[in-house]
Amino acid sequence: MSDTVTTGYSSALDGMKTAGPAPLHQFAALFARDTSLTDGTALLAHLQSAGPDDALRQRLAYQLSSWDHTDDGPWAAGTAPHTAERRAAICRALELDRATEELLSEIIPWAAIDAPIVIAEHFEEWRTPQRRTERDFYWAHYSANLLANGWDPSAVAGIDEATEEVVRRISDPTRKVAYQAKGLVVGYVQSGKTANFTGVIAKAIDAGYRMVIVLTGTTNMLRAQTQRRLDMELCGRENIEPDHDPTAHEYRYDDDWKRHKFINHGGRPSDSGHPDIERLSNYAGDYQRLKQGISALRFKRHDATKEFFHPANLYTSDARLVVAKKNASVLTNLVTDLKKVSARLGEIPVLIIDDESDQASVNTTSPAKWKEDSKKRTAINRLIAQLLTMLPRAQYVGYTATPYANVFIDPSDVEDIFPKDFIVSLPRPLGYMGADDFHDFDDDRPVGQRPLKTSKERAHVRYLSDEPADHELRAALDMYVLTGALKVYRERTGAGSYRHHTMLVHEAMGRESHRETARVIDKLWATAGYRSPTGLQRLRELYENDILPVTTAQTPGAAMPGSFEELHEHIADALGLIQPADRHGTPVIIVNSDPDLERHQQDLDFDQHGVWRILVGGNKLARGFTVEGLTVTYYRRAARQVDTLMQMGRWFGFRAGYRDLVRLYTTQDLHALFGAACQDEQSLRDDLRKYSSETAPESRLTPSRVPPLVEQHRPDLRPTGRNKMWNARLVSRSSPGEPMEPVAHPEKGKRALQNLRLWEPVLASAAATGTVAFRATGSKATYSAYHAVLLHNEMMAVLNRLQWLRDDIFVPERAWLNALAPTQLRQWVVLLPQQVDPTTGRMILGHGPFSIFDRKRSETGTLSAISESRHRNAAARIAGLDAHPDPAADALAAPCTAVLTLYPSVKPDTLTGARGDRIDPELVTIGFRAITPLSTGGGGKRLIWTTLDSGRPNDIVIDTPSAV
């Protein structure tokens, strides 16, 4: 009976994929030809006894999750996705009885997860439900394989939804007029982007794309890892071993191949009318010149009277797959081979997946080297541009977790990779451990005072001193051994499976520093005494003072021994895995580009065998490559770009069964840098959501029209490298409590005179108040100053109209100031300090006399300096900042008050005449130093960037108030 239930209900669910939910029991009875299924009792009994691995339960979970995700259909009755109301609508459409509905809500609850965020141009919808279901061979097998390997059905349904958002926005492969779409998919570091683009490839091949080029970072390790994933989860056994020759492929000795972990399609795909996949690269090697095998790039036409993209030819041809690292010689080989078959390239639907698309792909050549009407491109960018030019039906989809370099590309550069058609931001996946899992952003208490049950920082982060110390590295090694013993314990008690257990030590990028770090670890390991009473006592204290309280508070249901003594044998077994008896030498693997270490690095093959090692590395482990089983990280390497820093976060990822054991050893400064980077990342995602067509269809913005704003929370942490920011422009700079002192004032002429006249009302108001005495900074001396008080909008009326030596001067600061609310900034106090020498006083536009300051100009025309330090204490005191007491300043202080200190200036040796004489206004420049109160903070000090479009240089749309 169980087989009948599974067959009937699975077939019924398959039949509903296109039309949506319908009376489930009736359809199951029809497909099973068993009328006893119509009352639903058989399904209820089956589900009551079925475990999580039951095939029907998984199939039902996946379909329910898909309907939870999907767009509205008539059956949805207007309910929103990912809600209890949506699940109730599904159950009504399925005509489930109350008992079955309640059981499903218990064993397959609906998940309140985010949908992908989409910013897109208008596009031609070609992915009809019929086309999706009639050609889904590779997608169906891929999604079923994910479920069979333990993926949560809701997560698989989420991949279905997210990949569909991508595939529907690339061009219809059967389209008569070629169109080349370019898009960007934004994920999280180590969050399963490969799983997503594998799904996109599967759906694209099903739809008719017949050549797929996957560009994978810049290292052989990452390329091989990606190739194997695609071979295992997409290509499958039949495409790898088409002639059933076990000696004809590179996986013949692979344990996963022997255990049948590679997907099985049940026969050659072409035998059942589906395309085979011919691999033009393999796990053992990158793309090579095809030479005599150039025919592999020639696509046969079944009907010679029709173009290749006609369904009659497209659906009867096989697909090609190239997995290539972003290396100039490799991509040159591919371009050269494609040129040999150029006669038909215009008819071939091609999909280019660019993994880590902000690395190497972006043009970083300085504009100073560009020729007129021609950009000089870096090698990889130039070769990608060649591919896109040669392949007019090629679709480009970039994948990255750090998209800053991508959105700074000129949207009007048609040969470049700006995502002009769509940007898809993937939701945070279930079970993912990311940057914010190591920070407590909303808790200002000292870390030790935060509740261990809720504090992520207290649970997972261990602070290091600023300078390296052996005892701190030894503590991290102790944690690595202890967490390894707990993994052994949990596996033996049936609480999980732990093939890998790794520790990452990342201090610097130089090869010699890696060797030195490895020598230090070897010495510490040799003297650790893990089998001695002293070593065991250290582990006991670490277990009782760290591991046990964290796990008890954060994961109370996790498998733990009753006492430390129960761990003794597991500690010995963990040590044996880290440094087995038949392996002489060190438990350390150095991972860098040193060819002398290449054989040693073969031990770092997560695919071929379990890895229990301490990894010392730099850039080779800092992007894209997944460090499996990573539990303890000792991190000291600084970086000053958000993308570089975030990509070094190898401790992000999925930690099923040992999340409570994850530890990060780092300095407080580096931890703060990661916190700022995390905030920058979240700000970008918030902007993507704000601009998405789903969130605000009435004010929908597109990638080409308005690139997302990129926020920078720390001035010393830029979004990406300077060489990737030629097209970026700062549009807002917030500086609560920090001085602003622009120096690019025009010296003379109409602009200078206009600026001076803008200040005239301020000068008149200050002159009318007379002077007061302020205390000089750092001394008992005093100085006199005129002052005036202006409302914020009155001051901005002046600042907004000032002219500068360049159009971009003071624009970011002004944008921020304009956006401040009265509760943040209500008024300004203007100060005009007076010099001790009274002969410097002059009448300016009939007001004064005011002291005139000598100020030099640089060769570029800017003022070399403006303010004087002795005047700064009073300004800070008035603004409510930390400063020495000053009665005169305190009398002017008030909440939400900023200070502007003015310095009427001339070139040295310009002053002539006596005090009170008029001065030629064309000789005077009024410089200033502004400082705002902390009430202007909101989100703290930050910078906001955007992208210039060379096709519309004056047409950047920025909603300043909401952006800031």
From TrEMBL:
Pfam families according to UniProt:
Z1
**Top-level taxon of the source organism:** Bacteria
Domain called Putative endonuclease Z1: residue spans: 472-714
Disordered: annotated segments: 692-722
- Name by which UniProt lists this protein: Z1 domain-containing protein
